[in-house]
């Protein structure tokens, strides 16, 4: 593309617009939102916050790296002048990965290593591993129906995320049951371990981990993700040879309860101190990856949104709060602890916005509410469209803020472009280099814009 | 993000949906569009087409590489079974870059090289270059007003693209006049050469080239882009030393007229053979870069859209045509030649859709039309939203298809996420690796969807 003719005669842009409000009276809505947009895109502060968080490394809940991120984000909040910055205790169950070795054995040409990673929460294998024939299935029901054919086997769940759906979160929802419940379904048929195809739309050599559950009433058996490339190779070998044996060693184990923290900081409301609008993401990540999109991005956006709101000449009417939640990945204990904390007794949470779907181009928000609230929210679509918001529709808010929904708080999730998310999700590719500074910033700006409206006017009716 | 609770109980997705129409009666619209989406996302054919085009290398109009791309895309059209595949002659003015050397001279520590690239169409310097004091300006008017202060100088245009606007095409439109007309504005004050800050929002060491014009009535002087990092260094040196001298050698020159081609292939209409819906992009790129987003992407999407439409059980009512235009970058001669070709005499062009804003997440279409046509188009927003289209709004169609507008053809541009475009535009970073397969494919699917509606129903009224 050369330069665009229709824009040729526009004047050069001026500097950032600062709104004209005073300490007592807020600026007009359009002016306030324009200021958030202009200051955000000029400064690109979210990327700086993200870089600082990622310096701690992968942040498995309960790990020293996660503690680093707690300290780091507390300091960032203090440095930017948030009020009542403090930590709130969360008790998480620390899990550690240990050694991983997965290989096809008994092949004429020698063993074939499989790119694999234990699933979060899995028990380990005995120290010398398990070696067994592999049986391939596509669904939990198929695994449960194996009966004696599953006994002593390694069950291999190989149903891909469907590629032909528009929204990759839908595709994930149609395949992730294998990862979460595959081990227990296979254990019901007497299996000794499971391998699960990684949850990604790409054929890649990176294994994608994620939480799994040992359901009650069936034996716990070890579970590992294999990369999609390894899954395809394993399926080919099964098709070729009929019988394939795999050796699996997982050194993973549950260590036990560990104390860690949510990090909380406020921009106190101009009038209604104890009415709260929460902006949040989760500080923890998996241990395999820097957690740039999942969910360093959400934490950085929440911090940046507070910074942008704080730059307005008038504080919003209600308190806007940043919460860095701990331990979303293995059960959302931080979100539950936040609601249970005694400090909540004197507060009323009006709304909470979480960003936990990646730092990609933000497209809109999903709102966990019914009519007529949804229609009322859509009166804000026009002003928010100037920040790039294209929809405000019914949907899930977020794992960390979901416990707030039971308190009458409206929970809302930022919804970005999903096309690239599962290229990086829960694998070593979730790095800072895959984050575009402006796309990340737009998410912060949209969160700040919606938070501004909620903090000024409350939930629309 | 772990797995999303609301999706947990959805059933696994089925295979791609093939619509139920016959050779004579088209399938219902929603079914046809669902088929385009499902087949496209399953096959991701656009990325394959793009890879094949990029194998030719950078494709400056008139160069052997561009001729390779002409032959390559003709073969791709033949292989996929398009009809009347043929070349249409275009005469372009070949320009070549030759040597580039730009450096700050006379510094105590020795010369400081500046990352630079001649602007397309620029004359070269004398063989031994020009060496002159640099004077910095922000606007064309400022350059024209230099008068004697510009005489014998190298004028340095250093007005950045404004960062604080949402749409980066707007930001580009507010800065690109320096690149296009900076040389002539400076020549009016007697300057001997110009350096222009690269058109990107990033601080980077890559120079971004692009077309410039030697306006009539003023002397032609050499013009080069400098990287944004080099521009910042040069500005710092000027601030520090007051006087800074630069040596510039550009070996670029206009070679002369060369014959090359547009590439055309049809999916003939079921009923109205001579009523045409064009889908296009441009085959040429700059010589510095592989032209993945600009505009290999648009060509690949047009080819893929035809492939998807051809897979429908019923051909659309009107002819849908893929056109790979030549020479968008230095003046749109291919687009003009297409309209002027005698073959057009027996055809009526209903609509033309161009993709030339990058292969990023597609968000909607800009339509060069007035009311009530725009409102009529928006009746299609609901079915097209199932392909991810978020708007159908008034706007420019595209450089290559713009000459068709004068024939009564409605011209339409695919509009993707603009946030990442100027990171890669006209520089060496515009590579295949920066293209996401699914985002690229969605653009092809959206083009196919809108083309299907236009080919079945004509321009809505």
Characteristic terms for this protein:
homodimer; 461 residues; alpha/beta; Aminopeptidase; Glucose Oxidase, domain 1; 2 domains; 8-stranded mixed sheet
Q: If you had to describe this structure to a student in words, what would you say it looks like?
A:
Two copies of one chain form a homodimer. Helices cover 31% and strands 24% of the residues of chain A. By secondary structure, the first copy, chain A, is of the alpha/beta class. The first copy, chain A, folds into two domains: 26-95 and 256-457, Zn peptidases (Aminopeptidase), CATH 3.40.630; 98-251, Glucose Oxidase, domain 1 (3-Layer(bba) Sandwich), CATH 3.50.30. In chain A, α1 packs across α8 (292-311). Chain A starts with 28 loop residues before the first helix and ends with a helix. At the A-B interface, α1, α5, α6 and α14 of A face α1, α5, α6 and α14 of B.
Distance between the termini of chain A: 45 Å
User: What structural category arises from helix and sheet content of chain A?
Assistant: alpha/beta
Helix amount of chain A: 25-40%
CATH superfamily of the largest domain in chain A: Zn peptidases
Kindly report the greatest chain-chain contact and the residue count on each side: A-B, 70 and 71 residues
Residues in β-strands, percent of chain A = 15-25%
The number of E-state strands of chain A comes to 16
Count of alpha and pi helical runs of chain A: 14
Uncertain residue ranges of chain A: 3-18
**How confident is the prediction overall: mean pLDDT of chain A?**
95
CATH class of the largest domain in chain A: Alpha Beta
How many domains comprise the coordinates of chain A?
A: 2
H/E series of chain A? HHHEEEEEHEHHEEHEEEHEHEEHHEHEHH
Task: Tell the overall outline of chain A.
Answer: elongated
Which assembly state applies to the chains in this document?
Answer: homodimer
Question: What value does the Rg of chain A take, in angstroms?
Answer: 24 Å
Largest sheet of chain A: 8 strands, mixed
Side by side, the strands of the main sheet of chain A go: 1-10-12-11-13-16-14-15
CATH-level-2 architecture of the largest domain in chain A: 3-Layer(aba) Sandwich
